[in-house]
Design goal:
Strand content: 35-45%
Order of helices and strands: EHEHEHEEEEEEEHEEEEEEEH
CATH class of the largest domain: Mainly Beta
Largest sheet: 6 strands, antiparallel
Number of helices: 5
Number of domains: 2
Strand order of the largest sheet: 6-5-16-13-8-9
Oligomer: single chain
Distance between the termini: 48 Å
Number of strands: 17
Length: 261
């Protein structure tokens, strides 16, 4: 109906264990009330980026509500600025960013298999002082016969500004449908800087000399020790939604990050 007002969302507040996050939640609940998980339209997450990832993973187990984060932590790239006033209106006019996680399937040297979902990245990391030796395949074809390194990762666009960027990987716009394959301290090939892969790629890692050079595999907070084989692929059938203030979309933040000094 012309002129009809957009209904204000019902909010459920969640906070990290940091004192400033807990205090903020108490103030917000007093002002706006607290919807139950079954009634809420949006989760307002109070904390830092780590807490945002926790809430996104929580949505994988239950009803995946959109999440509007407000920074009450340390790192807040995925968070909006904190503010008490007009919060339902801010959320109602927020811009959406839809992300798709990676699925990791890891097989240990003992033949045990573990699976996990990663919103940021799937990474392989050496466990001892010795460098890892890893063979990399893409869609079943060997692309790098032996990478000697501290580790290697596959990062989503959402995770490209996190660990991937620290390892000198590329920043990827959310809508690019690309994954970043990024080495961590590559020794040989010394000049290999990684690759950009289509989001449909199945990336395989085979740990060479796994007994002598043990490697762990990590999907966000899930770690599997002493792996022999790992596969990572995007789960396009799983969608998670983050909300950002109008004019401060995730795409704008990614673009600004590429010009940061």
């Amino acid at each position: 109906m012309p002129g009809a007002h957009r209904p204000l969302p019902r909010l459920m507040f969640a906070a990290s264990d940091r004192p400033e996050a807990q205090e903020a939640m108490a103030e917000l609940v007093t002002r706006y009330g607290q919807s139950s998980p079954d009634e809420a339209d949006v989760v307002v997450a109070l904390g830092g980026d780590g807490f945002m990832l926790e809430r996104l993973h929580e949505g994988l187990k239950t009803r995946p509500l959109p999440i509007f984060g407000m920074n009450r932590g340390s790192v807040g790239f995925l968070m909006n600025d904190f503010g008490l006033d007009s919060l339902p209106q801010r959320v109602a006019h927020a811009e959406q960013a839809v992300i798709h996680p990676l699925e990791m399937t890891a097989t240990t040297v003992n033949g045990e298999t573990a699976q996990g979902l990663a919103i940021n990245e799937v990474s392989l990391l050496r466990q001892t002082r010795q460098s890892a030796k890893i063979r990399i395949t893409v869609d079943g074809k060997v692309r790098l016969d032996e990478l000697i390194c501290d580790g290697v990762m596959v990062a989503t666009p959402a995770g490209s500004t996190a660990y991937n960027l620290s390892a000198h990987g590329p920043i990827i716009p959310l809508e690019a449908r690309i994954l970043a394959l990024t080495p961590i301290s590559a020794f040989r090939p010394r000049r290999w800087r990684g690759a950009l892969l289509p989001h449909t790629a199945r990336v395989g890692f085979e740990v060479l000399e796994a007994d002598k050079r043990p490697v762990s595999a990590v999907a966000d907070s899930l770690e599997v020790r002493r792996v022999h084989r790992v596969e990572a692929r995007e789960r396009r059938d799983i969608s998670l939604t983050m909300l950002f203030d109008a004019g401060r979309s995730f795409e704008e933040r990614v673009l600004a990050e590429q010009f940061a000094s």
